[in-house]
Write the structure tokens for this entry.
Amino acid sequence: MADKGVQARIGSVKNIQKITRAMEMVAAARLRRAEQRISHLRPYAGALRRMTRQASEAAGNIPNVPVLAERESVDTVAIMLVTADRGLAGAFNSQIIRAGLREGAKLEGEGKRVVYYASGRRGVSSLTFRKKELAGEYIGFTDRPAYADARQIASDLTQAYVDGEVDRVDVFYNGYISALTQEVTRETLLPLQEASIFEGDEEEEEKGEERPSDSQHSALVEYEPDPEEILQRLVPEYVQISIYRALLESTASEHGARMTAMRNASENAGDLISDLTLQFNRERQAAITQEIMEVVAGAESLV
């Protein structure tokens, strides 16, 4: 009976291993497509960030436009968590949720009010379970986000800022580095004066390029219409493309994390199968030995 129990466990683990291997292959295929989308978007996103930064520097003073208005004090902060609709991806979802809640607790400790936005069922359900104030939830597209999804999220966040419901907008997402590495990334989108575009362009830093000074911008670039008007048009695009990039980075990170998690699960299943097979052989050998001893004992009793 023990042999049958071990055999059943071996069969069960083998079936699970087939599933995890299939999920690993699916995640790998989706990861390749997500990597292509990121590689196509990053140059455009980087160029838009540079244009927005340069226009803001050339403008001198930020135009009197609601979306560009900076608050005298930050009393309410919106935290946008970019998670996935599905699990089975290791710590992919939990690390974003922990980072967002940790930042929220810190802000609340400073006397600020925090409202949460979340994309992905995992983030939405986790915040709902913790009874956090959820001002926006977006689900059903994390496997393959479209620009329309980013536009909807950006519109809601921008409107909340313009209406004075929030004084700052922060986004937390998994930045894609490789299939094995995803980095929790925090970006400030609004107000523009605190946005990440003023921290220096990533691509320029990687290439070791020096940022031109304000005088060099003025000498090399002539703006038509005025930089203030250009900036007014660029900011909505900047917010949308920043959200879209966060969604794509998160999608690639999700597939990479799931591929790694399923590979580890398959390897662990293989180790468990080896251990169970060894246990099965030992129990079978012990049973055969016992039967031989019983036969010998019976033969001796007849002599």
